[in-house]
Each structure stands twice: as structure tokens, then as C-alpha cells.
Amino acid sequence: EQAEIGLIGLGTMGRNLALNIAEKGHPLAVFNRTVARTEEFMGEAGALARRITPAETLEDFVVALQSPRRIILLVPAGQPVDDQIEALKPLLDAGDLIIDGGNSDWRDTNRRVADAAPILHMGLGVSGGAKGAREGPSMMAGGPDAAYAMVAPVLESIAADFDGVPCVAHLGPGGAGHYIKMVHNGIEYADMQMIAEVYGLLRDGLGMAAHEMAPIFARWNEGVLQSYLIEITAKIAATADPDTGQPMLDVIADRAGQKGTGRWTVMDAQERGAPLPAVEAAVMARVLSSRYEDRASAEALFGAGPTSLPRDALTETMMEGALIAGKVLAYAQGFELMAAASDGEDWAIPLPRVAEIWRAGCIIRSAMLDDMASALAEASDRALIMAPHFAGLLARHHGALRQTVSLATAHGIAVPALSSALNFFDMMRTVRGTANMLQAQRDFFGQHGFERLDRPDESGLHGPWAG
Ligand code: 6PG
């Protein structure tokens, strides 16, 4: 029997996705550049191995596949993807399909889709980490309709399930799927950073031990904040290091890595003129975190930042409210960015579908995304913060965000993502801002011109300072 689908790249994601595909009943062929890795994988596959054909060469791999061939790549983003496509192309026939399941730059995917003929190319954002790949990821597809139609049944059978709805969708042409995955990761950065900031308040402001925080996060996970990230935060806080017996959090260095998707999201937002302050703050925080030597010198020079707070000043309810408001604002920024990209690239991204397929399987899955899906379905052109449900949450909780940010700031505890979300909110709801000063300055030094409130039909006006 020939394989229904092929998978190249047996790293963590590739192995888990392959097992998921085989488990759902699809005969599969696999290939990995290092053959030893393929043998090791076949050993791990257990009973599923009977549905998997291991190939030692790319030629054998291609021959093992039904026509038209469907090949999922799970190789590192960038040059390795182009190299793999180049190696495959001479072995494929017109109408065969290559699906790139890595975290590729959406512009690369745009180019690969455009250059693919006579074969087809599809960019597939896959979220959910190793466990998600094995048990059901959330998948964001971009590329030609015909490409998606070729793999929709397989993708729907392996995707996470939310109330009977598979968490996979064709979101647009070209690089649209990878674009949405990039923004997913940007939002993931902001969500994680805000949780880390509240962890800092609990640890440095209230002097709590990690195990004392675990039940707080666990309680929050029962309410509006119910989400995978809060759930794992509670578990992380409760975990001890098997070597030393200390809390795991206390032995992990505070230097965060990043593969780049968060930074890409920020750069893209800047280019489109879309405000994305919560993600910007999160990327900045990761960058600063890696500057350990500088932070040590500055602490020696200026003294440590955080000072403790009176225990009753900062309540659990206040911090929960801050996270709720911060989260609504960060996600609203992310959805606005996707709306801007959809217009700018002419992608017609179905935003309610994006929220729907993020409800399960992906790293940012949460109860709130279900409400976002409903709010966007009702009016997908309306900003999320204006949707009645989210406007209500913000009205109820922005005070808590303000109190939390004020207390943190007064005590030298850095909360860059929460405070940037608050500043965004305050700017958004102020009709008379301060950019009149910027316009005056620009006109003063460069005669850049401004508009007047009392003469709305005229532009390019100047002040009496031009001399
Ligand atoms: C997911 C994750 C996953 C991953 C990224 C971001 O949705 O499953 O977003 O794609 O964690 O690689 O990683 P960095 O934090 O290293 O940028």
C-alpha cells in the first residue's frame, strides 16, 4: 500500500506529528537526513510502525507516496526549507504538494508559493509544542485553495478538537498561514510576559515562595483567565528540582531565549503602522533579560530595583484583574494587526476562524478565545475592545491594572508589558491627546505643517514661529 502522506524531518515536532498522523489511520512515509534518527523513530513508534514506511533516500521516500504526493516538511525555518524543496523538486510531478509545517517567515512562504509551479506549496503554522503535535495541534494554513483541499481531511483528523470543530483552517493565500502563526507567537510572548510580571510581583513584592503562588495561579485558572499558559504556570510554580529539592523556578536562570517570531511580529507591526505595544514590551524584556552582566553592574551601581510591598496593598483580585485587562488589550492589538495585514496583503483572513482554531491545541488556547471568536463573528470589523463583552471586561478591570502598575512602579518592580497595555488603553480613550505638541515642534524646526481644530478643511498650516 502506498502512503497517503509523507513527512520529512524527524525532530521533536516531526516525530510527534508523524505519530499523530499514523494514529489517525493515515499510511505515512517518513524521511530524515540522518538515517539513524529514522531508525530510532521507527523503534519508538511501537504498534504505529506498521502504518509507517521509513525511507533511507529521498528517491525511496517519493516512490512510497500516492499520487498526487503530499509532503509535510518539518525542517528548521530558512535555508533548510529551500534546500529541501530544491532536493525534492526534480523527483516530483506537476500537482504534487509540499507543505511547510515549520515556523517559516511568511514572506519566504509567499515567495515559495509563487515559485512553486508546476508543484504546489502551502505554508502551515503548527502550534501546540511537542504534546500538541502528538495529541492534536492548532494549524493555520495558507496557500492555494487547491493545495488545502488536497490535505484538508488529513489535517482535520489530526487537529485538536474544540466541541467537535477541528482546530485547523485555510486562512488565506500565500504566506497567510505562517503570518497568523507569527502573530500567534507574538501574542504568546505578551501573554507569557504579563504572567511573568505578576510572578515578579508575587515573588519580589509580596515575598512569596514559588509553592505559595501555585494555588493562586490554579485559582485564576478556574475563572476568566482560564488558559493553558496559566495552567502550566501553576504547575511550574509547584514543581521542585529533583536534584536540589529547591523550587524549579529558583534554579532556572532569568535569561530568556527567542527564536525570532516575536521580534518578527513587532517588526511587521511597525512596518504596517499598527500599534503592538504589549508584544514590543515582551520582546524588549527578553532582550534585556539576556544582558546579565549589564544588569549585575547596574544593580551594583544603583541598588536592587524591587522593594517589598505591604501584603494587603496588592491583592489577588487586583492582580487577576490586571492580567484580565492586560490580556484583552494584548489580544486586541494582535487581532488589529491581523486585520491590517489582511487588508494590506489582500488576504481576506477570516478573523473569527482564527480565534476559533486557537481555542484548542495551541499554546495560547484559553476560555477568552471562545468569547473572542463570538465577538468577532458578530462584527469582525469592530475593534475587540469595543465589543460589548470585552468593553465590559475592560471597564471592570482597568482600575485593577492601573493599581497593579502603580504599586509595581512605586516599588521598583518592572512591569513593561502590563504598563504598556495600560498606556495603550489610556491613549486609546483620550480624544484630546498630546500630538499637537509634536506637530508644533515638527513645524517649528522643519515647517512640516499641521492641521487646526478650528479649520478642519485645511492642511499644511504653519505657526507664527516660521519667521
Ligand atoms: C507554538 C509555539 C512554538 C514555539 C516557538 C516560539 O505555538 O507551539 O509558539 O512555535 O514555542 O518556537 O519560540 P521562542 O520563544 O523560542 O521564540
TrEMBL record:
<dbReference type="InterPro" id="IPR036291">
    <property type="entry name" value="NAD(P)-bd_dom_sf"/>
</dbReference>
<dbReference type="GO" id="GO:0006098">
    <property type="term" value="P:pentose-phosphate shunt"/>
</dbReference>
<dbReference type="Pfam" id="PF03446">
    <property type="entry name" value="NAD_binding_2"/>
</dbReference>
<feature type="binding site" description="in other chain">
    <location>
        <position position="259"/>
    </location>
    <ligand>
        <name>substrate</name>
    </ligand>
</feature>
<feature type="binding site" description="in other chain">
    <location>
        <position position="189"/>
    </location>
    <ligand>
        <name>substrate</name>
    </ligand>
</feature>
<dbReference type="InterPro" id="IPR006114">
    <property type="entry name" value="6PGDH_C"/>
</dbReference>
<comment type="similarity">
    <text>Belongs to the 6-phosphogluconate dehydrogenase family.</text>
</comment>
<dbReference type="InterPro" id="IPR008927">
    <property type="entry name" value="6-PGluconate_DH-like_C_sf"/>
</dbReference>
<dbReference type="InterPro" id="IPR006115">
    <property type="entry name" value="6PGDH_NADP-bd"/>
</dbReference>
<comment type="function">
    <text>Catalyzes the oxidative decarboxylation of 6-phosphogluconate to ribulose 5-phosphate and CO(2), with concomitant reduction of NADP to NADPH.</text>
</comment>
<dbReference type="Pfam" id="PF00393">
    <property type="entry name" value="6PGD"/>
</dbReference>
<dbReference type="InterPro" id="IPR006183">
    <property type="entry name" value="Pgluconate_DH"/>
</dbReference>
<protein>
    <recommendedName>
        <fullName>6-phosphogluconate dehydrogenase, decarboxylating</fullName>
        <ecNumber>1.1.1.44</ecNumber>
    </recommendedName>
</protein>
<feature type="active site" description="Proton donor">
    <location>
        <position position="188"/>
    </location>
</feature>
<feature type="binding site" description="in other chain">
    <location>
        <position position="286"/>
    </location>
    <ligand>
        <name>substrate</name>
    </ligand>
</feature>
<comment type="subunit">
    <text>Homodimer.</text>
</comment>
<feature type="binding site">
    <location>
        <begin position="32"/>
        <end position="34"/>
    </location>
    <ligand>
        <name>NADP(+)</name>
    </ligand>
</feature>
<feature type="binding site">
    <location>
        <position position="448"/>
    </location>
    <ligand>
        <name>substrate</name>
    </ligand>
</feature>
<feature type="binding site" description="in other chain">
    <location>
        <begin position="127"/>
        <end position="129"/>
    </location>
    <ligand>
        <name>substrate</name>
    </ligand>
</feature>
<keyword id="KW-0521">NADP</keyword>
<keyword id="KW-0560">Oxidoreductase</keyword>
<feature type="binding site" description="in other chain">
    <location>
        <position position="103"/>
    </location>
    <ligand>
        <name>substrate</name>
    </ligand>
</feature>
<feature type="binding site" description="in other chain">
    <location>
        <begin position="184"/>
        <end position="185"/>
    </location>
    <ligand>
        <name>substrate</name>
    </ligand>
</feature>
<feature type="binding site">
    <location>
        <begin position="9"/>
        <end position="14"/>
    </location>
    <ligand>
        <name>NADP(+)</name>
    </ligand>
</feature>
<comment type="pathway">
    <text>Carbohydrate degradation; pentose phosphate pathway; D-ribulose 5-phosphate from D-glucose 6-phosphate (oxidative stage): step 3/3.</text>
</comment>
<keyword id="KW-0311">Gluconate utilization</keyword>
<feature type="domain" description="6-phosphogluconate dehydrogenase C-terminal">
    <location>
        <begin position="177"/>
        <end position="466"/>
    </location>
</feature>
<feature type="active site" description="Proton acceptor">
    <location>
        <position position="181"/>
    </location>
</feature>
<dbReference type="InterPro" id="IPR006184">
    <property type="entry name" value="6PGdom_BS"/>
</dbReference>
<keyword id="KW-0570">Pentose shunt</keyword>
<feature type="binding site">
    <location>
        <begin position="75"/>
        <end position="77"/>
    </location>
    <ligand>
        <name>NADP(+)</name>
    </ligand>
</feature>
<dbReference type="GO" id="GO:0004616">
    <property type="term" value="F:phosphogluconate dehydrogenase (decarboxylating) activity"/>
</dbReference>
<feature type="binding site">
    <location>
        <position position="442"/>
    </location>
    <ligand>
        <name>substrate</name>
    </ligand>
</feature>
<dbReference type="GO" id="GO:0050661">
    <property type="term" value="F:NADP binding"/>
</dbReference>
<dbReference type="InterPro" id="IPR013328">
    <property type="entry name" value="6PGD_dom2"/>
</dbReference>
<dbReference type="GO" id="GO:0019521">
    <property type="term" value="P:D-gluconate metabolic process"/>
</dbReference>
<feature type="binding site">
    <location>
        <position position="103"/>
    </location>
    <ligand>
        <name>NADP(+)</name>
    </ligand>
</feature>
<dbReference type="InterPro" id="IPR006113">
    <property type="entry name" value="6PGDH_Gnd/GntZ"/>
</dbReference>
